[in-house]
Amino acid sequence: QCPWGAPNTTSISCSLADVMSEQLAKELQLEEENTAFPEVVAVAEGPFITGENADTSSDLMLAQMLQMEFDREYDAQLRREEKKINGDSKVSISFENYRKVHPYDSDSSEDEVDWQDTRHDPYRADKPTTTPRRGFIGKGKDITTKHDEVVCGRKNTARMENFAPEFQVGDGIGMDLKLSNQVFNALKQHAYSEERRSARLHEKKEHSTAEKAVDPKTRLLLYKMVNAGMLETITGCISTGKESVVFHAYGGKSATEDKVMPPECAIKVFKTTLNEFKNRDKYIKDDYRFKDRFSKLNPRKIIRMWAEKEMHNLTRMQNAGIPCPQVVILKKHVLVMSFIGQDQVPAPKLKDVTLSSEDMKKAYYQTLNMMQQLYKECNLVHADLSEYNMLWHDGKVWLIDVSQSVEPTHPHGLEFLFRDCRNVSQFFQKGGVAEALNERELFNAVSGFNITADNEVDFQAEIEALEKMNEDHVQNHGKKLSMFSSDGDPPIYDE
Ligand code: ADP
Ligand code: MN
Q: What is the best residue among 400, 402, 404 to mutate for testing ligand 1's pocket, by most ligand atoms within 8 Å of CB?
């Protein structure tokens, strides 16, 4: 016999019904408490609500949190010294470069949604607001032109959104602020030099923490997911791009909100420190789905919007049955989805596999099909479609990387589509698929347009003309009457 005594294994026999009813009882109790003490229950719901109700059951997490606290205190001390040195002096010295926590790492999480609803697509029904194109508004002596000081000032304010994400513009964009040209230009100059300085600074920082790949905040966030049992382990990094870092993880057992975790997950972390997103401005700046929100958000939130956008686009694709990663959960700038691949090995990109000519042909027809589905059923244009963002898995092509995807009626949507078509067409033609349509035929086949131009230049000119026509329609009549219909019917010309 074991000296420690036999373990007490007398199992309490208990039927499924008992368990069920116990759960039911718990639920009922929770519900009751909820009405009686709403705020108490809110804290008890789980470790993810705020950073304050910290779960301290893990040493690593505790250590990370202490480190964060230490860094903040260090920064506070730095600020005090900065103040002491500068005093009332007109010329001041900044210790900014010595700070541990970059202003954008220090999060004010009070105003944030935590776990995002993966089903509701807030971009769907939005309609653009029409602004007159005449260059003036009003009548008689109340007429205002675009040179009007007030109008101009407001425009300048709105243009601040083009500044780098790091540039703090405060609430300026959201409120009715009028910047004179002189002030705006000075700000712009400052924003640019600040951007260059910040890029240099971050380059250093990024290098020093290359193996860690993400900032402490994000690491903590990932760690919380593991701690909550949502993920089993995060095994390593699959890819580090300019805009994102992708990790592999094994799914945990805990299923939150009726969600079952996939056995293997891919975690896409959108980078919050780099400026690359600015280059993608054109994808969202003109996207009417974002018009209302864009101006009211701070830079950090704009980067989160990329993650959000990827989530909603993936959901649309999933609903249409297009092979793509399934969204698991979105938290701030971190998107967890199902892993395409097996045993930690990601499925190869189409550019990296050698397919038999039969598979190549199969892949081509599937891609053509998916592009049509994407356009007609999801009302989306991938906008970065190429052999780099198509994975070969399970004998078929999977589409990934859709954060930049836009609706076809986006002011540049058709140009993006044409670029996609060119990539796809060239890839499969080079790959020896004799049936592969050329880029112009593919464009027509996907969009349902019938552009007859037989050379690239004319074709592109027609595409741009179509876009412009649509823009004018949107300006004059609102989205409803635009020549693209959003419910999947072939486009109608109504000129
Ligand atoms: P980026 O914007 O950096 O290109 P991607 O979404 O294309 O981001 O992801 C980068 C790489 O990570 C992909 O090329 C692919 O190899 C891998 N990857 C991304 N998502 C998944 C996934 N769900 N399953 C497997 N691998 C993935
Ligand atoms: Mn990619």
A: 400
Q: Pocket around ligand 1: residues whose beta carbon is below 6 Å from it?
A: 238-239, 241, 243-244, 246, 266, 268, 325, 337, 339-341, 346-347, 349, 389, 400-401
Contacts by residues 335-338 (CB-CB < 8 Å, ≥ 24 positions apart): 335/267, 335/268, 335/269, 335/270, 335/307, 335/310, 335/311, 336/225, 336/230, 336/231, 336/249, 336/265, 336/266, 336/267, 336/268, 337/265, 337/266, 337/267, 337/268, 338/262, 338/264, 338/265, 338/266
Tell me: pLDDT of 323 over 70.
yes
Nearest CA to ligand 1 atom 18: 246
Q: Is 126 a catalytic residue?
A: no
What does pTM read for this prediction? 0.64
CATH number of 348-480: 1.10.510.10
Residues composing the chain: 495
Q: Which CATH number fits domain 213-346: 3.90.226.10, 3.30.200.20, 3.40.50.670, 3.40.50.300?
A: 3.30.200.20
What is the rounded CA–CA span in Å between residue 346 and residue 266?
A: 9
Q: Enumerate the CATH 1.10.510.10 domain ranges in the chain, comma separated.
A: 348-480
Mean pLDDT confidence for 303-317:
93
Could you report the per-residue pLDDT of 196-237, keeping only the tens digit for each?
776 666 554 444 333 356 888 888 999 999 998 899 999 999
Which DSSP helix (H) or strand (E) runs through 283? helix 281-285
* CA 101 – ligand 2 centroid, Å: 29
Could you say which ligand is closest to the alpha carbon of residue 391?
Answer: 1
Question: Ligand 1 centroid to 337 CA: how many Å?
Answer: 11
